[in-house]
Amino acid sequence: MSRGLCVLAAAGAVAGVVAGTGPAAAAGTPRFLAPAELPPHQSSDWTAGPVTAGQPDPLPMCVGGALPSISMYRTYRTDLDTGALQVTVVERSEQRAKDFAALLRKDLAGCAATVMKENPDITATQKYYGKLNVEEGAHVYGVHTESTGGASDINLFSVGRDGSTVTLVQWGQLGGFAQAQVADFKDTTVTAVNKLYSSISS
């Protein structure tokens, strides 16, 4: 899988781990996806890193530059070439959250063009998979990248909002649109948005 285009590694030593993500977490702390809530892998279980404060490293393609320092994130991986990322941002107001979600959606709407502009050796195509009816809504996108060396990767992204909180989910693996687990990823997105402020711990 192309380095820098898909998130496959577990979280490294970056900003401090967020305290209080277990059962005793304070009210108002966003919850993250559990590994079992990701699209199922046919031959490997998912594992997850800790919920961590700050921007993920590496940044996800297309939307990484928009992620603020107040982000919280969690990375996920399988034993094979599949990885995922969830980033959540709690804004100061619902309007700021609406604006931030709109910015992420704009970046994703132009993702393929951005990737090819920044990486001349890559050809990128994308699809929009529609809006999901969960809380204030979530939108799903797919981006396929292929390098001149033959590497072919598929990434799915979603942006969802619950009040003043925005969450971004990314899933990626080797392959093309035919290998994209779109229905499972939509289920994962609905779960991610619904559980942001649920009482169920990750």
Tell me the layout of helices and strands.
Blueprint: E1 47-48, E2 52-53, E3 72-77, E4 82-90, H1 94-109, H2 111-118, E5 122-132, E6 138-147, E7 152-162, E8 165-174, H3 182-194
Antiparallel strand pairs: 1-3, 2-3, 3-4, 4-8, 5-6, 6-7, 7-8
For this entry, give a set of tags.
single chain; 202 residues; alpha+beta; Protein Transport Mog1p, Chain A; eight-stranded antiparallel beta sheet; 3 helices; globular
Please outline what is shown here.
With 202 residues, the chain is α+β, with helices and mostly antiparallel strands. Helix content is 18%, strand content 30%.
Task: Outline the structure in words.
With 202 residues, the chain is α+β, with helices and mostly antiparallel strands. The protein has one domain: 3-Layer(aba) Sandwich (Protein Transport Mog1p, Chain A). It has three helices and eight strands. It has helices spanning 94-109, 111-118, 182-194, and strands at 47-48, 52-53, 72-77, 82-90, 122-132, 138-147, 152-162, 165-174. Strands 1, 2, 3, 4, 5, 6, 7 and 8 form an eight-stranded antiparallel sheet that branches. Strand 5 (122-132) and strand 6 (138-147) form a beta hairpin. It is globular, with a radius of gyration of 16 Å. It starts with 46 loop residues before the first strand and ends in an 8-residue tail after the last helix. The model is unreliable at 6-27 (pLDDT under 50).
State the low-pLDDT regions, or none: 6-27
Q: Write down the secondary-structure element order.
A: EEEEHHEEEEH
- Our Rg estimate from Cα atoms comes to 16 Å
The quaternary structure here is single chain
The major pleated sheet works out as: 8 strands, antiparallel
